[in-house]
Amino acid sequence: MPLLFYLDDPRRLRGLLSSCAAPRTLARLHALLIVSSASHQLLSSLAAAYARAGDLVAAESTATAAATASSSIAAWNAIIAAHSRRGSPAAALRVFRALPPAARPDSTTFTLALSACARLGDLHAGEAIKDRACEAGYKDDIFVCSSLLHLYARWGAMGDAVKVFDRMPRRDRVTWSTMVAGLVSAGDPLEAIDMYRRMREDGVEGDDVVMLGVIQACSATRDVRIGASVHGHLLRHGMRMDVVTTTSLVDMYAKNGLLDVAHRVFGLMVHRNVVSWSVLISGLSQNGHADEALHMFRKMQTSGLLPDSGALVSALLACSDIGYVKLGRSIHCFILRRLEFTCILATAVIDMYSKCGSLTSAQMLFNRIGGKDLILWNAMIACCGAHGRGQDALTLFQEMNKTGIRPDHATFASLLSALSHSGLVEEGKLWFHRMVNYFKIKPVEKHYVCLVDLLARSGLVEEANAIVKSMEAVPTVAIWVALLSGCLNNKKLELGESIADHVLQLQPDDVGVLALVSNLYAAAKKWDKVSEVRKLMKDTGSKKVPGCSLIDISRTRHTFMMEDQSHPQHHEILKMVAKLDFEMRKMGYVPRTEFVYHDLEEEVKEQLLSYHSERLAIAFGLLNTSPGTRLVIIKNLRVCGDCHDAIKYISRIAEREIVVRDAKRFHHFKDGACSCGDYW
DNA sequence: CGGTTTTAAA
């Protein structure tokens, strides 16, 4: 039917407008409305139709034309909603603020505006809108309240959210969902689960959105039993299990280490999207199965899905875990070819290079990223620290401050740790002080660990001890451990012993900590205490993990354990070790036998030191590379003070840069079993 | 009438 015939029938015309999405037809209707000097209502409908079709320019101009009539608010609402949907909440707020005086905002308008504030994280603007909504009489409106609730809950004002929630006269599913999700993001999963219970008591049936929040809560409680019962509930009640719900279930199981269940649920999914794969991949790599994670990453691609930035981040994480630079680099190239480098992606790639020992690649990428955000700076500062470049970390930190980005607690944790590892004591003290007094950041455990470590490492054990004593909070095991290893390295055995006693009382279940305690008693020659701790280690089922080092030479990974004679080049390696020992002594090296924690003859102790796994790995590296090469050793345990010294001498003798990286996250080292990576 | 809540990842 020709459009012209609609003119006589405004109701049909409005029907047509509300269902029409074709821009061409809308333009013709627009012309028609103008020539027939149509009513304001019709113009508003047209504006709303333009907004729905995505033509916001036309929508705004039409709405302005219709704005004199009070009913035009619907058109403005459509425009605000369209802006929000298209991902520009700022534009939505701009339209809201510029509403013509005649257009009186209604419940929908306030709801949309508050939702835009929530997307932007603008609590301040939200507060003002809430006040206007109350003045306009929407104080108890369920939609307005729900979006206000979401704004508060999402941005850490849980107290305000609860206040709003408590005085709401009526609550629907959305209200409850918002509270559940809000409590989860506020880090209070138990409270979230309780909120769900209250909802059921109130007689409200859960829908998929509420259940999603509950699943997240279960995931965060680290208590899979509740999670599994929720899963059972979903199945028993035949509730809707769409991709999102099922994906969250996979995530919950994977995050909590039930990888087989996660796999099974994943396998039963009828429809999987990139996120489904990503949660499985990140779950696998977080639980030390990086190789399997990367296998899934490949399977995802062969199943025809193109990885998005999230999937790539998960895969990069797995690459870092096993030091698989080759794949990491190819992901980097993939991003360069097909995607935009967002800060999130750049951070993940830089982190990968950092953990794989490639400082230069990390720096090169970092320098090319424009509009760096806080987390990207933090990652790069941490990267410098991990590579022993304390001064560079400090320079970066100062550059960051110049760009006007405010450092946060993580920045200082990275900075202090970098300064600590490079022995920059004065700078460390200075910046700790400035963090507290200038940046007004309250030091938490990790900061104290860094500071105490920094002082204790460089011999200022008493000063470190004073810091611990002056702490407001009760010192944690990690802080005592930092102090304790300082005592051990600096032969402050009397103080060390009292700390060891104290740490023991705190009942650490960590083997590393027990080993340190035992080592200190050994250094103090308290052999009865040593056997006591050794017994404790046995009783808790934890056996001492043998020291193990890895080195990659021309894409082959070689593993070395103390006193391991299985390597084909074993004899040559021992010869090299002896030769190095000789050269080092000529340069003034004195073996620090206090780092051998057995009751043995001095000479045997010296021999044992030179058989530490990193020494074997280095010797092997020297045999198979030429001067100027960079040797990256990956070790599962902390490098002892003696090896630390020895490495300095060896790098001078052999003219090679030697880097030892900590490999706590390498699953190859679990239970001391070192296996060769499949990727080398 | 509509409008509110919705999975991973640094």
TrEMBL record:
<feature type="repeat" description="PPR">
    <location>
        <begin position="141"/>
        <end position="171"/>
    </location>
</feature>
<dbReference type="InterPro" id="IPR002885">
    <property type="entry name" value="PPR_rpt"/>
</dbReference>
<dbReference type="GO" id="GO:0003723">
    <property type="term" value="F:RNA binding"/>
</dbReference>
<dbReference type="InterPro" id="IPR046848">
    <property type="entry name" value="E_motif"/>
</dbReference>
<dbReference type="GO" id="GO:0009451">
    <property type="term" value="P:RNA modification"/>
</dbReference>
<feature type="repeat" description="PPR">
    <location>
        <begin position="242"/>
        <end position="272"/>
    </location>
</feature>
<keyword id="KW-0677">Repeat</keyword>
<feature type="domain" description="DYW">
    <location>
        <begin position="588"/>
        <end position="680"/>
    </location>
</feature>
<dbReference type="Pfam" id="PF01535">
    <property type="entry name" value="PPR"/>
</dbReference>
<dbReference type="Pfam" id="PF14432">
    <property type="entry name" value="DYW_deaminase"/>
</dbReference>
<feature type="repeat" description="PPR">
    <location>
        <begin position="172"/>
        <end position="206"/>
    </location>
</feature>
<protein>
    <recommendedName>
        <fullName>DYW domain-containing protein</fullName>
    </recommendedName>
</protein>
<keyword id="KW-0809">Transit peptide</keyword>
<dbReference type="GO" id="GO:0008270">
    <property type="term" value="F:zinc ion binding"/>
</dbReference>
<dbReference type="Pfam" id="PF20431">
    <property type="entry name" value="E_motif"/>
</dbReference>
<dbReference type="InterPro" id="IPR032867">
    <property type="entry name" value="DYW_dom"/>
</dbReference>
<dbReference type="Pfam" id="PF13041">
    <property type="entry name" value="PPR_2"/>
</dbReference>
<dbReference type="InterPro" id="IPR046960">
    <property type="entry name" value="PPR_At4g14850-like_plant"/>
</dbReference>
<feature type="repeat" description="PPR">
    <location>
        <begin position="373"/>
        <end position="407"/>
    </location>
</feature>
<feature type="repeat" description="PPR">
    <location>
        <begin position="273"/>
        <end position="307"/>
    </location>
</feature>
